[in-house]
Amino acid sequence: MDGSSGKCTGRAGATASKEKTVVFSLLCDIGLWIPEILAVVLSGSITLFADVMKDGNEILATMFALAILIKMRHGAGFTYDYGMGKFETLTRIATGVVMFISIALIFFSAIHRLIVPEALRPTGAYIAIPLVILTAIIDTWLWKKNYRIAQIDPSPIMETQWRLRRAKSFADVAVLISFVLSFALIGYSWSVYIDPGISFVIIGFLLIAGIREISSSLPDLFDKTLEEDLQIVILQELSAFFNEYHGFYGVRSRRSGSKIYIDIFLGFDPGLTMGAVQATSDRLKGSLEGKIQGSIVSIVPTSERSAQAGRM
Asked: Residue 239 and residue 116: Cα distance in Å, rounded?
């Protein structure tokens, strides 16, 4: 009982820590997004417009992440037996779709500016340059912080958050370079093409992030089986316990958020007591959960007849 209570407390503490970080990220994003929109209007920068669109996507992703964490803190596990993994996956797909819409808007805006070039207006630059420097510092700090949290307590939420922050840090640098070069080389007629040209760098960041969000989410949404290396771990453990069960009738696995659910169907000698079967199941379960991080293993005693009926 004490062990279970400790685990629950640990999970609650980890969720609270993630929630605080995500709330701080959201407040920073919204606080910096509003003056950044003003800077876009005043400067006419397509690169900064691309960054604003990217920030909007990140605010959406962060709001989704916060909603999931709040739901988890309020005990969604009692309503959803397999956790909030499916909802988390769907929000990642939704974020990816919004990213592709943003890419289309930025792309056509950049093409228009290349066809009808326009010099950046200095008024907006006075706001944009210090703002982008501040944003880059905050994003880099959040990137490192979210990465550390993801390493300690892996989850798709924090994985997405640190990757978004990393991409945003590089995008901030691209925006800064666009402004510096545009004004440093203002005497050259071709300098008007620097800003829309660099906006394609941010399009690239959005494209990579959008593809990653959708491609990494679809397998989990359709309950794809575990990766080959994890399947090998399961088979190795089953081999180590080979003499303690009589029949192996399959493995079912699925991911739900940061958790991996593994059901193993085994046949045991009918002459064994339930206590002996349970002891073997507990040892196999403990061994597998120790070797596969975030796994929840269920050993299901069954017979060949029951296993065949289940496949029909």
From this structure: 69
Domain that holds residue 305: 228-311
The tokens describing 164, both together, are: 């978004």
Going by the DSSP 8-state scheme, the letter that residue 117 receives in this structure is: -
- Report residue 288 as tokens: 């597998």
Going by their DSSP bridges, the two strands 259-267 and 247-256 should be labelled as antiparallel
Quote the CA–CA distance of 131 and 254 in Å, as a whole number. 44
Q: How far is residue 199's CA from residue 109's CA, in Å, rounded to a whole number? A: 10
Does the pTM of the predicted model rise above 0.70? no
Report the domain count for the chain.
Answer: 2
CA distance 87 to 229: 26
Domain boundary residue, one of 221, 255, 283 = 221
Residue closest to 302 by CA, chosen among 269, 258, 267: 267
List pLDDT tens digits, range 168-210: 888 888 889 988 898 888 888 888 899 999 888 888 888 887 7
b/e map of 63-101 (b: 16 or more CB within 10 Å)? Answer: bbbbebbebbeeeeeeeeeebbbbbbbebbbbbbebbee
Are 189 and 55 within one domain?
A: yes
Q: What is the CATH number of the domain that holds 239?
A: 3.30.70.1350
